[in-house]
Amino acid sequence: xxxxxxxxxxxxxxxxxxEWAVRERAVALELAVRPDNEHAIALxxxxxxxxxxRLGDVLPDGLRREHIMVKTLGPGRAA
Length: 79
Description:
This protein is of the alpha+beta class. 30% of the residues lie in helices and 29% in strands. The chain has helices at 9-23, 38-46; strands spanning 28-33, 50-58, 65-72. A 3-stranded antiparallel sheet has the order 1-3-2, covered by helices on one side. Strand 2 and strand 3 form a beta hairpin.
């Protein structure tokens, strides 16, 4: 695990991106995550991202693909 694990850095980064997207009047945030990155998936779910059926890019192993997660933005939604 990284030295910053448990310090809330990921939470702060996701909140900052959410706040920026709201200021820019984005309607959604979308990201791609490796299916084996359980910590990142948990972080994104905590912040309201939901898994989609869409797949992202093929990973370097040529077999697995990233999973796409999305968070709809709108009035009254918090990071």
